[in-house]
């Protein structure tokens, strides 16, 4: 009787262990990964990706991340900001018309990517802003930005640096959240 009880207990423990491994969705055996596939130790990372992503190469203190955010999950993802070891602040910035001019400003609402949907980040439009850069962003060098969903989930996006000279903009320090698309005597943002 004790032998049978021990066998049932061992079988239950083995079943739970196998279930736990399957639920994780990650294999540590490279032979289990199909050719061309990537593995991830953070299941949430697979839900959000960036297609054709890049960050503007710069020696200045600010830059922008561009590309197409893709949500492969069955729930909306709302990016409200983030972090990077390369910057003091990571914010979501939108483009709006104010007083007859197009301006960019921080948005607390962030960017919502619907289930199975996409959201475009592009120069002169909506983008992820890196402020207070701690290092030069060089063309070709990878940069990782951890963006944060409104529910607290973080997603790591890695993009290469790229030279870009279009849509130069200026930063108005007295209007902390606003960027003008016109010229002024303020320091250059150099992010788009």
Features:
192 residues, Immunoglobulin-like, 12 strands, disordered C terminus
Structure in words:
It is a single chain. The chain has 192 residues and is mostly beta strands. It folds into 2 domains: 2-31; 44-180, PCu(A)C copper chaperone (Immunoglobulin-like), CATH 2.60.40.1890. The protein has 1 helix and 12 strands, in the order αββββββββββββ. It has one helix at residues 2-24, and strands at residues 48-56, 62-71, 77-84, 87-98, 101-106, 111-113, 118-121, 127-133, 142-149, 154-162, 170-171, 178-180. It has a 7-stranded mixed barrel. β9 (142-149) and β10 (154-162) form a beta hairpin. The relative contact order is 0.20.
SSE topology sketch:
Blueprint (H helix, E strand, L loop, with lengths): L1 H23 L23 E9 L5 E10 L5 E8 L2 E12 L2 E6 L4 E3 L4 E4 L5 E7 L8 E8 L4 E9 L7 E2 L6 E3 L12
Parallel strand pairs: 1-10
Antiparallel strand pairs: 1-2, 2-7, 2-8, 3-4, 3-6, 3-9, 4-5, 4-8, 5-12, 9-10, 11-12
Which stretches are poorly predicted, pLDDT < 50 over at least 5 residues? 1-43, 169-192
CATH superfamily of the largest domain, by name, is PCu(A)C copper chaperone
- Relative helix content: 10-25%
- The CATH class designation of the largest domain is Mainly Beta
Distance between the ends = 74 Å
Q: Rg from C-alpha positions?
A: 22 Å
What's the helix count?
1
Q: What gross morphology would you assign?
A: globular
The string of secondary-structure elements, in order, is HEEEEEEEEEEEE
Q: What structural class do helix, strand and pairing data support? A: mainly beta
Say how many strands there are.
12
**Describe the biggest sheet?**
7 strands, mixed, barrel
Provide the β-strand percentage band: 35-45%
Oligomer: single chain
Domain tally: 2
Overall mean pLDDT:
73
Kindly identify the CATH topology of the largest domain: Immunoglobulin-like
Query: Main sheet: which strands, in order across?
Result: 1-2-8-4-3-9-10
Any idea what the CATH architecture of the largest domain is?
Answer: Sandwich
């Amino acid at each position: 009787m004790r032998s049978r009880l021990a066998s049932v207990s061992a079988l239950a423990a083995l079943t739970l262990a196998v279930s736990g491994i399957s639920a994780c969705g990650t294999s540590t055996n490279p032979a289990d990964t199909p050719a061309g596939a990537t593995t991830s130790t953070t299941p949430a990372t697979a839900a959000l990706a960036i297609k054709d992503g890049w960050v503007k190469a710069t020696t200045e203190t600010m830059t922008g991340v561009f590309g197409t955010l893709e949500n492969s999950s069955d729930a909306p993802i709302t990016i409200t900001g983030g972090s990077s070891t390369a910057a003091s602040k990571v914010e979501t910035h939108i483009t709006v018309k104010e007083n007859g001019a197009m301006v960019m400003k921080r948005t607390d609402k962030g960017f919502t990517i619907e289930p199975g949907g996409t959201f475009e980040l592009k120069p002169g439009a909506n983008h992820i802003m890196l402020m207070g850069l701690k290092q030069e962003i060089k063309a070709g060098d990878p940069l990782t930005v951890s963006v944060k969903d409104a529910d607290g989930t973080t997603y790591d996006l890695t993009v290469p640096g790229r030279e870009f000279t279009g849509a130069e903009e200026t930063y108005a320090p007295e209007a902390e959240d606003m960027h003008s698309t016109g010229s002024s005597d303020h320091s250059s943002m150099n992010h788009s």
